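Reviewer 2 asked us to include a model.

Predict the structure of this chain.
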Amino acid sequence: MAVVTNSSMNRKRNKSEIMNRAVAYVFLIIGALIMTVPFLWMLSTSLKEPGLVFEMPPRWIPENIIWDNYKVVLTESDLLGGFMNTMAVTLPPTIVGLFASAIAAYAFGRMDFPGKNIFFMALLATMMIPGVVLMVPSFILYKYLGWIDSWKPLMIPGMFGAAGTVFFLRQFFKTIPSELEDAAKMDGLSPFGIFMRIVVPLSKPALATQAIFGFLGGYNDYMGPLIYLNSPEKYTLQLVLATFQDAYNAEWTLIMAGSVLALIPTVILFFFAQRYFIEGITLTGMKG
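Predicted model (C-alpha coordinates):
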Protein backbone atom coordinates (compact mmCIF):
# COMPACT_ATOMS: atom_id res chain seq x y z
CA MET A 1 0.00 0.00 0.00
CA ALA A 2 2.85 2.32 0.83
CA VAL A 3 4.45 1.58 -2.53
CA VAL A 4 1.26 2.45 -4.34
CA THR A 5 0.90 5.65 -2.31
CA ASN A 6 4.48 6.72 -3.04
CA SER A 7 4.07 5.93 -6.73
CA SER A 8 0.86 7.97 -6.85
CA MET A 9 2.54 10.88 -5.10
CA ASN A 10 5.45 10.74 -7.55
CA ARG A 11 3.07 10.80 -10.50
CA LYS A 12 1.24 13.81 -9.05
CA ARG A 13 4.55 15.55 -8.41
CA ASN A 14 5.71 14.88 -11.96
CA LYS A 15 2.43 16.18 -13.38
CA SER A 16 2.73 19.30 -11.25
CA GLU A 17 6.29 19.90 -12.43
CA ILE A 18 5.25 19.40 -16.05
CA MET A 19 2.37 21.85 -15.67
CA ASN A 20 4.57 24.46 -14.00
CA ARG A 21 7.19 24.07 -16.73
CA ALA A 22 4.54 24.32 -19.45
CA VAL A 23 3.13 27.51 -17.93
CA ALA A 24 6.64 28.98 -17.68
CA TYR A 25 7.35 28.15 -21.33
CA VAL A 26 4.05 29.71 -22.41
CA PHE A 27 4.90 32.97 -20.65
CA LEU A 28 8.44 32.92 -22.07
CA ILE A 29 7.12 32.39 -25.60
CA ILE A 30 4.61 35.21 -25.19
CA GLY A 31 7.33 37.51 -23.87
CA ALA A 32 9.65 36.56 -26.73
CA LEU A 33 6.92 37.31 -29.27
CA ILE A 34 6.21 40.69 -27.67
CA MET A 35 9.90 41.59 -27.91
CA THR A 36 10.33 40.21 -31.44
CA VAL A 37 7.23 41.64 -33.16
CA PRO A 38 8.49 45.28 -33.30
CA PHE A 39 11.77 44.16 -34.88
CA LEU A 40 9.97 41.99 -37.45
CA TRP A 41 7.63 44.87 -38.28
CA MET A 42 10.59 47.20 -38.71
CA LEU A 43 12.26 44.70 -41.05
CA SER A 44 9.02 44.21 -42.99
CA THR A 45 8.46 47.95 -43.35
CA SER A 46 12.01 48.49 -44.61
CA LEU A 47 11.28 46.20 -47.57
CA LYS A 48 7.92 47.71 -48.60
CA GLU A 49 6.86 50.31 -51.10
CA PRO A 50 6.07 53.69 -49.46
CA GLY A 51 2.32 53.47 -50.08
CA LEU A 52 1.94 50.06 -48.45
CA VAL A 53 3.21 50.87 -44.97
CA PHE A 54 -0.20 51.49 -43.41
CA GLU A 55 -2.31 49.11 -45.49
CA MET A 56 -5.03 47.21 -43.66
CA PRO A 57 -4.89 44.40 -42.88
CA PRO A 58 -1.12 44.69 -42.48
CA ARG A 59 1.02 42.46 -44.66
CA TRP A 60 4.08 41.04 -42.93
CA ILE A 61 5.76 39.71 -46.06
CA PRO A 62 5.68 42.29 -48.89
CA GLU A 63 4.53 41.10 -52.27
CA ASN A 64 7.32 43.09 -53.91
CA ILE A 65 10.51 43.32 -51.85
CA ILE A 66 12.15 46.72 -52.35
CA TRP A 67 15.90 46.37 -51.67
CA ASP A 68 16.45 49.85 -53.08
CA ASN A 69 15.38 51.31 -49.72
CA TYR A 70 18.71 50.20 -48.29
CA LYS A 71 20.56 51.54 -51.31
CA VAL A 72 18.96 54.97 -50.81
CA VAL A 73 19.94 55.02 -47.15
CA LEU A 74 23.56 54.09 -47.89
CA THR A 75 23.90 56.63 -50.69
CA GLU A 76 21.93 59.54 -49.21
CA SER A 77 23.33 59.42 -45.68
CA ASP A 78 26.82 59.08 -44.25
CA LEU A 79 25.85 55.93 -42.36
CA LEU A 80 29.29 54.35 -42.67
CA GLY A 81 31.00 57.51 -41.44
CA GLY A 82 28.61 57.69 -38.50
CA PHE A 83 29.35 54.06 -37.68
CA MET A 84 33.11 54.64 -37.71
CA ASN A 85 32.68 57.71 -35.49
CA THR A 86 30.55 55.66 -33.10
CA MET A 87 33.24 52.97 -32.90
CA ALA A 88 35.88 55.62 -32.20
CA VAL A 89 33.74 57.09 -29.43
CA THR A 90 32.49 53.81 -27.94
CA LEU A 91 35.38 51.33 -27.96
CA PRO A 92 37.96 53.26 -25.85
CA PRO A 93 35.54 53.95 -22.95
CA THR A 94 34.27 50.37 -23.13
CA ILE A 95 37.73 48.78 -22.94
CA VAL A 96 39.58 51.24 -20.72
CA GLY A 97 36.54 51.97 -18.55
CA LEU A 98 35.92 48.26 -17.97
CA PHE A 99 39.54 47.79 -16.89
CA ALA A 100 39.30 50.74 -14.49
CA SER A 101 35.99 49.49 -13.09
CA ALA A 102 37.40 45.98 -12.63
CA ILE A 103 40.41 47.28 -10.68
CA ALA A 104 38.15 49.38 -8.45
CA ALA A 105 35.79 46.44 -7.96
CA TYR A 106 38.71 44.21 -6.99
CA ALA A 107 39.88 46.76 -4.43
CA PHE A 108 36.41 47.10 -2.92
CA GLY A 109 35.66 43.39 -2.99
CA ARG A 110 38.94 41.68 -2.09
CA MET A 111 41.16 44.21 -0.30
CA ASP A 112 41.01 46.01 3.04
CA PHE A 113 41.96 49.67 3.37
CA PRO A 114 40.86 52.56 5.61
CA GLY A 115 37.48 54.06 4.68
CA LYS A 116 36.62 51.30 2.19
CA ASN A 117 32.95 51.15 3.11
CA ILE A 118 32.62 54.93 3.16
CA PHE A 119 34.14 55.25 -0.30
CA PHE A 120 31.97 52.44 -1.61
CA MET A 121 28.80 54.03 -0.23
CA ALA A 122 29.82 57.34 -1.80
CA LEU A 123 30.31 55.52 -5.09
CA LEU A 124 26.85 53.98 -4.84
CA ALA A 125 25.38 57.38 -3.99
CA THR A 126 26.47 58.67 -7.38
CA MET A 127 24.12 56.12 -8.95
CA MET A 128 21.18 57.88 -7.28
CA ILE A 129 21.82 61.15 -9.16
CA PRO A 130 19.66 61.46 -12.32
CA GLY A 131 21.64 62.03 -15.48
CA VAL A 132 19.56 65.05 -16.49
CA VAL A 133 20.69 66.86 -13.33
CA LEU A 134 24.30 66.69 -14.49
CA MET A 135 23.74 67.81 -18.08
CA VAL A 136 24.07 71.57 -17.53
CA PRO A 137 27.04 71.41 -15.09
CA SER A 138 28.80 68.94 -17.38
CA PHE A 139 28.24 71.13 -20.42
CA ILE A 140 29.62 74.18 -18.61
CA LEU A 141 32.66 72.21 -17.45
CA TYR A 142 33.41 70.81 -20.90
CA LYS A 143 32.89 74.22 -22.48
CA TYR A 144 35.40 75.69 -20.04
CA LEU A 145 37.87 72.92 -20.99
CA GLY A 146 37.32 73.57 -24.71
CA TRP A 147 35.89 70.12 -25.34
CA ILE A 148 32.67 71.18 -27.10
CA ASP A 149 32.35 69.90 -30.68
CA SER A 150 34.85 67.14 -29.99
CA TRP A 151 34.66 63.50 -28.96
CA LYS A 152 36.39 64.11 -25.63
CA PRO A 153 33.20 64.52 -23.52
CA LEU A 154 31.92 61.25 -24.96
CA MET A 155 35.16 59.32 -24.42
CA ILE A 156 37.26 60.54 -21.50
CA PRO A 157 34.69 60.39 -18.64
CA GLY A 158 33.81 56.80 -19.54
CA MET A 159 37.45 55.75 -19.34
CA PHE A 160 37.35 56.21 -15.55
CA GLY A 161 34.76 53.46 -15.15
CA ALA A 162 31.14 53.41 -14.05
CA ALA A 163 29.61 52.99 -10.60
CA GLY A 164 27.14 50.36 -11.78
CA THR A 165 29.90 48.28 -13.35
CA VAL A 166 32.00 48.52 -10.18
CA PHE A 167 29.08 47.33 -8.07
CA PHE A 168 28.27 44.44 -10.42
CA LEU A 169 31.88 43.22 -10.62
CA ARG A 170 32.44 43.65 -6.89
CA GLN A 171 29.55 41.28 -6.18
CA PHE A 172 31.06 38.75 -8.57
CA PHE A 173 34.63 39.09 -7.26
CA LYS A 174 33.45 38.46 -3.69
CA THR A 175 32.32 34.96 -4.71
CA ILE A 176 35.80 33.86 -5.83
CA PRO A 177 37.26 31.47 -3.21
CA SER A 178 39.77 33.18 -0.96
CA GLU A 179 41.93 30.04 -0.98
CA LEU A 180 43.00 30.83 -4.53
CA GLU A 181 44.11 34.27 -3.49
CA ASP A 182 45.97 32.93 -0.45
CA ALA A 183 47.81 30.38 -2.58
CA ALA A 184 48.78 33.12 -5.06
CA LYS A 185 50.13 35.26 -2.23
CA MET A 186 52.25 32.34 -1.01
CA ASP A 187 53.65 32.05 -4.51
CA GLY A 188 54.75 35.68 -4.32
CA LEU A 189 52.15 37.31 -6.57
CA SER A 190 51.42 40.99 -5.98
CA PRO A 191 47.80 42.22 -5.68
CA PHE A 192 47.92 43.33 -9.31
CA GLY A 193 49.33 39.94 -10.32
CA ILE A 194 46.53 38.19 -8.45
CA PHE A 195 44.03 40.41 -10.21
CA MET A 196 45.43 39.70 -13.67
CA ARG A 197 46.22 35.99 -13.29
CA ILE A 198 43.50 34.77 -10.92
CA VAL A 199 40.55 37.15 -10.82
CA VAL A 200 40.30 38.19 -14.48
CA PRO A 201 40.41 34.64 -15.96
CA LEU A 202 37.74 33.48 -13.50
CA SER A 203 35.53 36.50 -14.24
CA LYS A 204 35.30 36.35 -18.04
CA PRO A 205 31.47 35.95 -18.07
CA ALA A 206 30.95 38.95 -15.76
CA LEU A 207 33.48 41.07 -17.66
CA ALA A 208 31.91 40.12 -21.01
CA THR A 209 28.46 41.04 -19.69
CA GLN A 210 29.61 44.47 -18.59
CA ALA A 211 31.52 44.99 -21.83
CA ILE A 212 28.31 44.34 -23.78
CA PHE A 213 26.34 46.72 -21.56
CA GLY A 214 29.00 49.40 -21.92
CA PHE A 215 29.23 49.02 -25.68
CA LEU A 216 25.46 49.14 -26.15
CA GLY A 217 25.21 52.18 -23.91
CA GLY A 218 27.74 54.10 -26.00
CA TYR A 219 26.49 52.76 -29.32
CA ASN A 220 22.88 53.80 -28.64
CA ASP A 221 23.71 57.10 -26.95
CA TYR A 222 21.83 59.94 -28.61
CA MET A 223 21.66 62.69 -26.01
CA GLY A 224 25.40 62.99 -25.42
CA PRO A 225 26.41 63.48 -29.08
CA LEU A 226 23.41 65.77 -29.58
CA ILE A 227 24.62 68.07 -26.79
CA TYR A 228 28.35 68.13 -27.48
CA LEU A 229 28.75 67.68 -31.25
CA ASN A 230 28.11 70.43 -33.80
CA SER A 231 30.08 69.41 -36.88
CA PRO A 232 28.30 66.89 -39.17
CA GLU A 233 31.54 65.08 -39.96
CA LYS A 234 31.85 64.18 -36.27
CA TYR A 235 28.28 62.88 -35.90
CA THR A 236 27.80 59.43 -34.44
CA LEU A 237 25.47 56.87 -35.98
CA GLN A 238 22.47 57.96 -33.92
CA LEU A 239 22.83 61.59 -35.01
CA VAL A 240 23.27 60.53 -38.63
CA LEU A 241 20.02 58.57 -38.41
CA ALA A 242 18.24 61.51 -36.78
CA THR A 243 19.49 63.85 -39.51
CA PHE A 244 18.38 61.38 -42.18
CA GLN A 245 14.95 61.14 -40.54
CA ASP A 246 14.59 64.92 -40.62
CA ALA A 247 15.51 64.97 -44.30
CA TYR A 248 13.11 62.15 -45.21
CA ASN A 249 10.27 62.94 -42.83
CA ALA A 250 7.43 60.38 -42.98
CA GLU A 251 9.39 58.18 -45.43
CA TRP A 252 8.98 55.25 -43.07
CA THR A 253 10.39 52.66 -45.43
CA LEU A 254 13.71 54.51 -45.62
CA ILE A 255 13.76 55.31 -41.92
CA MET A 256 13.17 51.67 -41.02
CA ALA A 257 15.86 50.58 -43.48
CA GLY A 258 18.34 52.87 -41.75
CA SER A 259 17.27 51.52 -38.36
CA VAL A 260 17.79 47.93 -39.51
CA LEU A 261 21.29 48.76 -40.75
CA ALA A 262 22.12 50.45 -37.46
CA LEU A 263 20.86 47.43 -35.55
CA ILE A 264 22.98 44.86 -37.38
CA PRO A 265 26.26 45.41 -35.39
CA THR A 266 24.50 44.97 -32.04
CA VAL A 267 22.79 41.78 -33.22
CA ILE A 268 26.13 40.38 -34.42
CA LEU A 269 27.76 41.33 -31.11
CA PHE A 270 25.11 39.57 -29.06
CA PHE A 271 25.16 36.54 -31.37
CA PHE A 272 28.88 35.96 -30.75
CA ALA A 273 28.86 36.96 -27.06
CA GLN A 274 25.53 35.54 -25.94
CA ARG A 275 27.12 32.56 -24.17
CA TYR A 276 29.26 34.80 -21.96
CA PHE A 277 26.39 37.25 -21.52
CA ILE A 278 23.88 34.66 -20.32
CA GLU A 279 26.49 32.91 -18.17
CA GLY A 280 27.50 36.19 -16.55
CA ILE A 281 23.91 37.14 -15.74
CA THR A 282 23.17 33.65 -14.40
CA LEU A 283 26.27 33.34 -12.24
CA THR A 284 25.88 36.82 -10.78
CA GLY A 285 22.23 36.16 -10.01
CA MET A 286 23.11 32.88 -8.28
CA LYS A 287 26.14 34.08 -6.37
CA GLY A 288 25.45 37.75 -5.84
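The chain has two domains: 2-46, 68-287. The CA atoms of residues 45 and 52 lie 9 Å apart. We have added this to the supplementary material.
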